[in-house]
Amino acid sequence: MTQKMIDQAKAVMRKNDRGLYTVPTQGLYPFQWNWDSALSALGFAHFDEPRAWTEIETLFAHQWEDGMLPHIIFHQPDDGYFPGPDVWATGRAVPTTGITQPPVAGFAVRRIFDRARDKALAVEKARALLPQIHAWHQWFFANRDPQGTGLVAIIHPWESGRDNSVDWDAAFERVPTEGVEPFTRRDTSHANPEHRPTDEQYKRYIWLVQKFRSLGWDNSKLHDASPFQIVDPGFNAILMRSCADLADLAESLGETQIADQSRAMADKGIAAMETLWSDAHGQYLCFDRSIGALVDSPSIGGILAAFAPIPQARARAISERIKVLAESCTYLVPSHDPTAPEFDALRYWRGPIWLIVNYMISDGLEFAGQTAVADRINRDCLRLIEQGGFAEYYGPIGAEPCGGDTFTWTAAMVIEILSTQKVPA
Ligand code: GLC
Fold first, then answer.
1. Alpha carbon of 313 to ligand 1 centroid (Å)
2. What is the Å distance from ligand 1's center to 349 Cα?
3. Residue from 17, 159, 392, 416 carrying the catalytic annotation
Protein backbone atom coordinates (compact mmCIF):
# COMPACT_ATOMS: atom_id res chain seq x y z
CA MET A 1 0.00 0.00 0.00
CA THR A 2 2.66 2.44 1.08
CA GLN A 3 4.91 1.75 -1.89
CA LYS A 4 1.97 1.93 -4.28
CA MET A 5 1.01 5.35 -2.93
CA ILE A 6 4.60 6.59 -3.22
CA ASP A 7 4.76 5.36 -6.82
CA GLN A 8 1.51 7.13 -7.66
CA ALA A 9 2.80 10.33 -6.05
CA LYS A 10 6.04 10.13 -8.04
CA ALA A 11 4.03 9.75 -11.25
CA VAL A 12 2.10 12.93 -10.41
CA MET A 13 5.34 14.83 -9.84
CA ARG A 14 6.86 13.55 -13.06
CA LYS A 15 3.73 14.51 -14.97
CA ASN A 16 4.01 18.10 -13.76
CA ASP A 17 7.78 18.25 -14.21
CA ARG A 18 8.86 20.73 -16.90
CA GLY A 19 12.57 19.88 -16.59
CA LEU A 20 13.88 22.79 -14.56
CA TYR A 21 10.72 23.46 -12.58
CA THR A 22 7.33 21.91 -11.85
CA VAL A 23 3.88 23.37 -12.44
CA PRO A 24 1.41 22.93 -9.54
CA THR A 25 -1.02 21.23 -11.92
CA GLN A 26 -1.70 21.32 -15.65
CA GLY A 27 -4.35 23.76 -16.84
CA LEU A 28 -5.26 25.69 -13.69
CA TYR A 29 -1.67 26.66 -12.74
CA PRO A 30 0.67 26.39 -15.76
CA PHE A 31 3.74 28.25 -14.38
CA GLN A 32 6.17 27.99 -11.47
CA TRP A 33 4.81 29.03 -8.07
CA ASN A 34 7.14 30.03 -5.26
CA TRP A 35 6.10 28.05 -2.18
CA ASP A 36 4.76 25.18 -4.29
CA SER A 37 8.26 24.67 -5.66
CA ALA A 38 10.02 24.87 -2.30
CA LEU A 39 7.68 22.29 -0.77
CA SER A 40 7.65 20.09 -3.84
CA ALA A 41 11.45 19.90 -3.71
CA LEU A 42 11.04 17.98 -0.43
CA GLY A 43 9.22 15.27 -2.35
CA PHE A 44 11.81 15.12 -5.14
CA ALA A 45 14.60 14.83 -2.59
CA HIS A 46 13.43 11.32 -1.67
CA PHE A 47 13.94 9.90 -5.14
CA ASP A 48 15.98 12.41 -7.18
CA GLU A 49 18.20 14.74 -5.15
CA PRO A 50 19.71 16.69 -8.07
CA ARG A 51 16.18 17.39 -9.33
CA ALA A 52 15.19 18.71 -5.88
CA TRP A 53 18.07 21.19 -5.92
CA THR A 54 17.24 22.25 -9.48
CA GLU A 55 13.68 23.13 -8.46
CA ILE A 56 14.91 25.63 -5.88
CA GLU A 57 17.78 26.91 -8.02
CA THR A 58 15.36 27.75 -10.83
CA LEU A 59 13.21 29.67 -8.38
CA PHE A 60 16.11 31.76 -7.12
CA ALA A 61 17.40 32.39 -10.64
CA HIS A 62 14.43 34.75 -10.89
CA GLN A 63 14.96 36.58 -7.61
CA TRP A 64 14.69 40.34 -7.99
CA GLU A 65 17.72 42.57 -7.51
CA ASP A 66 16.22 43.97 -4.30
CA GLY A 67 15.98 40.46 -2.82
CA MET A 68 12.31 39.69 -3.41
CA LEU A 69 11.44 36.21 -4.62
CA PRO A 70 8.34 36.52 -6.83
CA HIS A 71 5.23 34.44 -6.34
CA ILE A 72 4.93 33.25 -9.96
CA ILE A 73 7.53 32.87 -12.70
CA PHE A 74 5.95 32.86 -16.16
CA HIS A 75 8.50 30.64 -17.87
CA GLN A 76 6.33 29.96 -20.93
CA PRO A 77 3.38 31.89 -22.35
CA ASP A 78 0.01 30.32 -21.50
CA ASP A 79 -3.23 32.22 -21.91
CA GLY A 80 -5.14 29.72 -19.76
CA TYR A 81 -4.26 31.74 -16.65
CA PHE A 82 -5.38 35.15 -15.46
CA PRO A 83 -3.76 37.53 -14.50
CA GLY A 84 -0.86 36.87 -16.84
CA PRO A 85 2.40 38.79 -17.44
CA ASP A 86 0.74 41.66 -19.31
CA VAL A 87 -1.38 42.52 -16.28
CA TRP A 88 1.56 42.45 -13.88
CA ALA A 89 3.89 44.26 -16.28
CA THR A 90 6.92 43.96 -14.00
CA GLY A 91 9.29 44.48 -16.92
CA ARG A 92 11.46 41.43 -16.31
CA ALA A 93 13.15 39.49 -19.11
CA VAL A 94 11.44 36.30 -17.96
CA PRO A 95 8.17 37.75 -16.64
CA THR A 96 7.25 37.33 -12.99
CA THR A 97 4.56 38.70 -10.72
CA GLY A 98 5.52 41.60 -8.45
CA ILE A 99 4.48 40.15 -5.09
CA THR A 100 5.92 37.30 -3.05
CA GLN A 101 4.70 34.14 -1.24
CA PRO A 102 5.38 32.36 2.09
CA PRO A 103 9.16 32.07 2.51
CA VAL A 104 9.38 28.35 3.12
CA ALA A 105 12.51 27.82 0.97
CA GLY A 106 14.88 28.30 3.93
CA PHE A 107 13.19 25.47 5.79
CA ALA A 108 13.10 23.24 2.70
CA VAL A 109 16.76 23.76 1.85
CA ARG A 110 17.88 22.99 5.36
CA ARG A 111 15.78 19.84 5.46
CA ILE A 112 17.00 18.60 2.09
CA PHE A 113 20.57 19.39 3.14
CA ASP A 114 20.28 17.53 6.44
CA ARG A 115 18.91 14.42 4.78
CA ALA A 116 21.11 14.50 1.70
CA ARG A 117 22.67 11.25 0.60
CA ASP A 118 24.99 13.15 -1.76
CA LYS A 119 26.67 15.40 0.79
CA ALA A 120 29.13 16.99 -1.61
CA LEU A 121 26.31 18.07 -3.90
CA ALA A 122 24.31 19.33 -0.93
CA VAL A 123 27.19 21.46 0.35
CA GLU A 124 27.75 22.96 -3.08
CA LYS A 125 24.07 23.75 -3.65
CA ALA A 126 23.30 24.98 -0.13
CA ARG A 127 26.38 27.23 -0.11
CA ALA A 128 25.19 28.93 -3.29
CA LEU A 129 21.58 29.28 -2.13
CA LEU A 130 22.41 30.53 1.37
CA PRO A 131 23.07 34.22 0.49
CA GLN A 132 20.09 34.28 -1.87
CA ILE A 133 17.66 33.02 0.75
CA HIS A 134 19.19 35.35 3.32
CA ALA A 135 18.73 38.32 0.97
CA TRP A 136 15.06 37.41 0.60
CA HIS A 137 14.62 37.28 4.39
CA GLN A 138 16.35 40.63 4.77
CA TRP A 139 14.16 42.05 2.01
CA PHE A 140 11.09 41.18 4.10
CA PHE A 141 12.25 43.07 7.16
CA ALA A 142 13.44 46.07 5.13
CA ASN A 143 10.29 46.37 3.00
CA ARG A 144 7.46 44.80 4.93
CA ASP A 145 8.33 45.88 8.45
CA PRO A 146 9.19 49.55 8.06
CA GLN A 147 8.60 50.25 11.77
CA GLY A 148 10.93 47.45 12.88
CA THR A 149 8.30 45.50 14.85
CA GLY A 150 9.92 42.14 14.08
CA LEU A 151 6.85 40.99 12.10
CA VAL A 152 6.19 41.47 8.38
CA ALA A 153 2.96 42.36 6.58
CA ILE A 154 1.55 40.95 3.40
CA ILE A 155 0.11 43.54 1.03
CA HIS A 156 -1.94 41.21 -1.18
CA PRO A 157 -3.95 38.12 -0.12
CA TRP A 158 -2.14 36.06 -2.76
CA GLU A 159 1.10 36.60 -0.86
CA SER A 160 -0.25 34.59 2.06
CA GLY A 161 -0.88 31.56 -0.14
CA ARG A 162 -4.37 31.49 1.45
CA ASP A 163 -6.03 33.50 -1.30
CA ASN A 164 -9.62 33.93 -0.07
CA SER A 165 -9.28 33.27 3.66
CA VAL A 166 -11.94 34.77 5.92
CA ASP A 167 -9.01 36.60 7.55
CA TRP A 168 -8.95 39.15 4.74
CA ASP A 169 -12.69 39.87 4.51
CA ALA A 170 -12.85 42.95 6.74
CA ALA A 171 -9.63 44.50 5.42
CA PHE A 172 -10.72 43.76 1.87
CA GLU A 173 -13.76 45.98 2.35
CA ARG A 174 -11.32 48.88 2.35
CA VAL A 175 -9.83 47.91 -1.01
CA PRO A 176 -11.75 49.77 -3.72
CA THR A 177 -12.95 48.31 -7.01
CA GLU A 178 -13.27 51.54 -8.99
CA GLY A 179 -11.00 51.73 -12.00
CA VAL A 180 -10.43 48.00 -12.30
CA GLU A 181 -9.89 47.22 -15.97
CA PRO A 182 -12.37 44.67 -17.39
CA PHE A 183 -11.07 41.11 -17.27
CA THR A 184 -12.08 37.50 -17.89
CA ARG A 185 -11.27 34.98 -15.21
CA ARG A 186 -9.71 31.71 -16.35
CA ASP A 187 -9.67 29.78 -13.06
CA THR A 188 -13.42 29.19 -13.17
CA SER A 189 -13.14 27.29 -16.44
CA HIS A 190 -10.66 24.83 -14.88
CA ALA A 191 -12.32 24.40 -11.47
CA ASN A 192 -15.82 24.55 -10.01
CA PRO A 193 -16.74 28.27 -9.61
CA GLU A 194 -18.67 27.38 -6.45
CA HIS A 195 -15.37 26.43 -4.85
CA ARG A 196 -13.32 29.40 -6.05
CA PRO A 197 -12.95 32.98 -4.77
CA THR A 198 -15.82 35.27 -5.80
CA ASP A 199 -15.83 37.88 -8.61
CA GLU A 200 -15.95 40.64 -5.99
CA GLN A 201 -12.76 39.30 -4.45
CA TYR A 202 -11.13 39.04 -7.88
CA LYS A 203 -11.83 42.71 -8.58
CA ARG A 204 -10.04 43.65 -5.40
CA TYR A 205 -7.13 41.32 -6.13
CA ILE A 206 -6.73 43.11 -9.46
CA TRP A 207 -7.20 46.58 -7.99
CA LEU A 208 -4.17 45.95 -5.77
CA VAL A 209 -2.13 44.67 -8.72
CA GLN A 210 -2.99 47.82 -10.71
CA LYS A 211 -2.10 50.01 -7.73
CA PHE A 212 1.32 48.43 -7.27
CA ARG A 213 1.92 48.50 -11.02
CA SER A 214 1.19 52.23 -11.04
CA LEU A 215 4.01 52.62 -8.49
CA GLY A 216 6.44 50.87 -10.82
CA TRP A 217 6.72 47.84 -8.50
CA ASP A 218 9.04 49.87 -6.29
CA ASN A 219 9.07 47.85 -3.09
CA SER A 220 10.22 50.81 -1.03
CA LYS A 221 6.80 52.38 -1.74
CA LEU A 222 4.34 49.50 -1.88
CA HIS A 223 3.88 48.68 1.80
CA ASP A 224 2.91 52.18 2.87
CA ALA A 225 0.79 52.74 -0.24
CA SER A 226 -1.24 49.57 0.20
CA PRO A 227 -4.69 49.77 1.82
CA PHE A 228 -4.19 46.09 2.63
CA GLN A 229 -1.47 45.40 5.23
CA ILE A 230 -1.97 42.25 7.26
CA VAL A 231 0.40 40.59 9.70
CA ASP A 232 -0.48 36.92 9.25
CA PRO A 233 0.79 34.61 12.02
CA GLY A 234 1.09 31.66 9.63
CA PHE A 235 3.14 33.63 7.14
CA ASN A 236 5.35 35.06 9.88
CA ALA A 237 5.81 31.64 11.45
CA ILE A 238 7.08 30.33 8.13
CA LEU A 239 9.50 33.24 7.90
CA MET A 240 10.75 32.76 11.47
CA ARG A 241 11.15 29.02 10.99
CA SER A 242 13.10 29.61 7.79
CA CYS A 243 15.30 32.22 9.47
CA ALA A 244 16.01 29.81 12.34
CA ASP A 245 16.72 26.96 9.93
CA LEU A 246 18.94 29.15 7.79
CA ALA A 247 20.87 30.13 10.92
CA ASP A 248 21.58 26.45 11.65
CA LEU A 249 22.49 25.74 8.05
CA ALA A 250 24.78 28.78 7.86
CA GLU A 251 26.46 27.70 11.06
CA SER A 252 27.20 24.25 9.73
CA LEU A 253 28.65 25.82 6.57
CA GLY A 254 30.83 28.22 8.58
CA GLU A 255 28.92 31.33 7.46
CA THR A 256 28.75 32.97 10.86
CA GLN A 257 27.52 36.38 9.77
CA ILE A 258 24.46 34.94 8.03
CA ALA A 259 23.95 32.64 11.00
CA ASP A 260 23.99 35.48 13.54
CA GLN A 261 21.75 37.78 11.50
CA SER A 262 19.26 34.99 10.80
CA ARG A 263 19.10 33.95 14.44
CA ALA A 264 18.48 37.56 15.49
CA MET A 265 15.61 37.96 13.01
CA ALA A 266 14.01 34.70 14.15
CA ASP A 267 14.31 35.50 17.86
CA LYS A 268 12.89 38.99 17.49
CA GLY A 269 10.00 37.75 15.34
CA ILE A 270 9.08 34.89 17.63
CA ALA A 271 9.02 37.23 20.62
CA ALA A 272 6.84 39.67 18.66
CA MET A 273 4.40 36.89 17.73
CA GLU A 274 3.17 37.02 21.32
CA THR A 275 1.28 40.20 20.38
CA LEU A 276 -0.86 38.05 18.05
CA TRP A 277 -1.91 35.50 20.66
CA SER A 278 -5.61 35.31 21.59
CA ASP A 279 -6.56 33.60 24.84
CA ALA A 280 -10.20 33.69 23.80
CA HIS A 281 -9.55 31.61 20.68
CA GLY A 282 -6.61 29.58 22.01
CA GLN A 283 -4.62 30.42 18.88
CA TYR A 284 -2.85 33.28 17.15
CA LEU A 285 -4.78 35.84 15.07
CA CYS A 286 -3.95 38.16 12.19
CA PHE A 287 -3.22 41.81 12.91
CA ASP A 288 -4.61 44.44 10.56
CA ARG A 289 -1.77 46.95 10.46
CA SER A 290 -3.70 49.66 8.63
CA ILE A 291 -6.19 50.01 11.49
CA GLY A 292 -3.96 48.70 14.28
CA ALA A 293 -6.26 45.88 15.48
CA LEU A 294 -6.32 42.08 15.70
CA VAL A 295 -8.65 40.36 13.22
CA ASP A 296 -11.28 38.29 15.01
CA SER A 297 -11.11 35.35 12.61
CA PRO A 298 -10.20 31.85 13.87
CA SER A 299 -8.53 30.55 10.73
CA ILE A 300 -5.71 28.11 10.16
CA GLY A 301 -3.18 30.97 9.91
CA GLY A 302 -3.06 31.13 13.69
CA ILE A 303 -2.60 27.37 13.96
CA LEU A 304 0.06 27.16 11.27
CA ALA A 305 2.05 29.37 13.64
CA ALA A 306 3.03 26.10 15.36
CA PHE A 307 5.52 25.63 12.50
CA ALA A 308 7.81 28.20 14.16
CA PRO A 309 9.76 27.42 17.33
CA ILE A 310 7.10 29.09 19.49
CA PRO A 311 6.99 28.69 23.29
CA GLN A 312 6.01 25.20 24.51
CA ALA A 313 2.89 26.51 26.24
CA ARG A 314 1.63 27.98 22.97
CA ALA A 315 2.26 24.73 21.07
CA ARG A 316 0.37 22.86 23.78
CA ALA A 317 -2.55 25.28 23.54
CA ILE A 318 -2.64 24.94 19.75
CA SER A 319 -2.76 21.18 20.16
CA GLU A 320 -5.77 21.57 22.40
CA ARG A 321 -7.34 23.93 19.91
CA ILE A 322 -6.94 21.33 17.15
CA LYS A 323 -8.64 18.74 19.36
CA VAL A 324 -11.60 21.09 19.69
CA LEU A 325 -11.70 21.57 15.89
CA ALA A 326 -11.71 17.77 15.52
CA GLU A 327 -15.09 17.68 17.25
CA SER A 328 -16.74 19.54 14.38
CA CYS A 329 -15.15 17.84 11.35
CA THR A 330 -14.06 14.38 10.22
CA TYR A 331 -10.56 15.25 8.99
CA LEU A 332 -7.91 17.65 10.25
CA VAL A 333 -7.04 20.49 9.87
CA PRO A 334 -9.84 22.63 8.36
CA SER A 335 -8.63 26.00 7.05
CA HIS A 336 -11.39 27.71 9.01
CA ASP A 337 -13.23 26.84 12.20
CA PRO A 338 -16.26 24.70 11.15
CA THR A 339 -18.39 26.26 13.88
CA ALA A 340 -17.78 29.84 12.63
CA PRO A 341 -20.55 31.32 10.46
CA GLU A 342 -18.16 32.07 7.53
CA PHE A 343 -17.00 28.44 7.30
CA ASP A 344 -17.53 27.10 3.79
CA ALA A 345 -16.56 23.42 3.57
CA LEU A 346 -15.53 23.32 -0.10
CA ARG A 347 -14.60 26.90 -0.94
CA TYR A 348 -10.84 27.03 -1.22
CA TRP A 349 -9.29 28.58 1.92
CA ARG A 350 -12.56 29.13 3.80
CA GLY A 351 -12.85 25.61 5.23
CA PRO A 352 -11.08 22.92 3.17
CA ILE A 353 -7.93 21.01 4.14
CA TRP A 354 -4.60 21.61 2.41
CA LEU A 355 -1.93 18.94 2.85
CA ILE A 356 1.00 21.34 2.80
CA VAL A 357 -0.43 23.26 5.72
CA ASN A 358 -1.14 20.02 7.56
CA TYR A 359 2.45 18.96 7.03
CA MET A 360 3.88 22.18 8.45
CA ILE A 361 1.58 22.13 11.48
CA SER A 362 2.36 18.52 12.27
CA ASP A 363 6.09 19.12 11.82
CA GLY A 364 6.00 21.97 14.33
CA LEU A 365 3.84 20.07 16.82
CA GLU A 366 6.05 17.03 16.63
CA PHE A 367 9.10 19.15 17.41
CA ALA A 368 7.20 20.61 20.38
CA GLY A 369 6.45 17.12 21.67
CA GLN A 370 2.75 17.17 20.73
CA THR A 371 3.10 13.87 18.93
CA ALA A 372 -0.44 12.51 19.32
CA VAL A 373 -2.02 15.41 17.45
CA ALA A 374 0.84 15.47 14.93
CA ASP A 375 0.28 11.76 14.18
CA ARG A 376 -3.46 12.22 13.85
CA ILE A 377 -2.90 15.00 11.27
CA ASN A 378 -0.53 12.84 9.22
CA ARG A 379 -2.92 9.91 9.37
CA ASP A 380 -5.73 12.12 8.12
CA CYS A 381 -3.57 13.25 5.19
CA LEU A 382 -3.22 9.65 4.06
CA ARG A 383 -6.91 8.89 4.59
CA LEU A 384 -7.75 11.84 2.34
CA ILE A 385 -5.44 10.60 -0.40
CA GLU A 386 -6.91 7.11 -0.19
CA GLN A 387 -10.38 8.53 -0.65
CA GLY A 388 -9.76 11.32 -3.12
CA GLY A 389 -6.40 10.96 -4.89
CA PHE A 390 -3.85 13.76 -5.21
CA ALA A 391 -6.23 16.73 -5.26
CA GLU A 392 -5.48 20.40 -4.67
CA TYR A 393 -7.44 20.35 -1.41
CA TYR A 394 -10.19 18.38 0.39
CA GLY A 395 -13.46 18.84 2.24
CA PRO A 396 -12.90 18.42 6.00
CA ILE A 397 -16.23 16.68 6.53
CA GLY A 398 -16.80 14.52 3.45
CA ALA A 399 -13.19 14.19 2.15
CA GLU A 400 -14.29 15.52 -1.25
CA PRO A 401 -11.30 16.03 -3.59
CA CYS A 402 -11.52 19.65 -4.83
CA GLY A 403 -9.81 22.13 -7.13
CA GLY A 404 -7.19 20.89 -9.57
CA ASP A 405 -6.30 17.20 -9.65
CA THR A 406 -2.90 15.47 -9.84
CA PHE A 407 -1.41 18.25 -7.77
CA THR A 408 2.35 18.46 -7.35
CA TRP A 409 2.72 19.61 -3.76
CA THR A 410 0.02 17.23 -2.52
CA ALA A 411 2.01 14.38 -4.08
CA ALA A 412 5.24 15.72 -2.59
CA MET A 413 3.71 15.81 0.88
CA VAL A 414 2.55 12.22 0.59
CA ILE A 415 6.06 11.08 -0.33
CA GLU A 416 7.45 13.14 2.53
CA ILE A 417 4.97 11.81 5.10
CA LEU A 418 5.25 8.19 4.03
CA SER A 419 9.03 8.26 3.77
CA THR A 420 9.83 10.04 6.99
CA GLN A 421 7.11 9.84 9.58
CA LYS A 422 5.98 7.04 11.75
CA VAL A 423 2.36 7.03 10.71
CA PRO A 424 0.33 4.57 12.80
CA ALA A 425 -1.98 2.50 10.59
C1 GLC B 1 -3.50 29.00 -5.21
C2 GLC B 1 -3.16 28.79 -3.75
C3 GLC B 1 -1.69 29.13 -3.52
C4 GLC B 1 -0.83 28.28 -4.45
C5 GLC B 1 -1.27 28.39 -5.91
C6 GLC B 1 -0.60 27.37 -6.80
O7 GLC B 1 -3.38 30.33 -5.59
O8 GLC B 1 -3.98 29.56 -2.93
O9 GLC B 1 -1.35 28.91 -2.18
O10 GLC B 1 0.49 28.64 -4.32
O11 GLC B 1 -2.66 28.19 -6.01
O12 GLC B 1 -0.78 26.07 -6.33
1. 31
2. 10
3. 392
- CA 274 to ligand 1 centroid distance, Å: 28
Which is the catalytic residue, given 49, 55, 159, 163?
163
Task: Put residue 348 in one of left, alpha, beta given phi > 0 → left and psi -120 to 50 → alpha.
Answer: left
Domain ranges of the chain: 2-419
The CATH fold of domain 2-419: Glycosyltransferase (1.50.10)
Query: Residue 423's pLDDT is what?
Result: 59
pLDDT beyond 90 at 421: no
Q: Which among 124, 96, 95, 99 has a CA at the least distance from the CA of 109?
A: 124
178 is catalytic: no
Nearest-atom index, ligand 1, CA of 29: 6
Is 128 in contact with 246 (CB distance < 8 Å)?
Answer: no
> Distance (Å, rounded) from C-alpha 106 to C-alpha 140?
13
Report the alpha-carbon distance of residue 392 to residue 410 in Å, rounded.
Answer: 7
Say if pTM beats, i.e. exceeds, 0.85: yes
* The pLDDT value given to residue 425: 46
Per residue in 191-237, pLDDT (tens digit) is 999 999 999 999 999 999 999 999 999 999 999 999 999 999 999 99
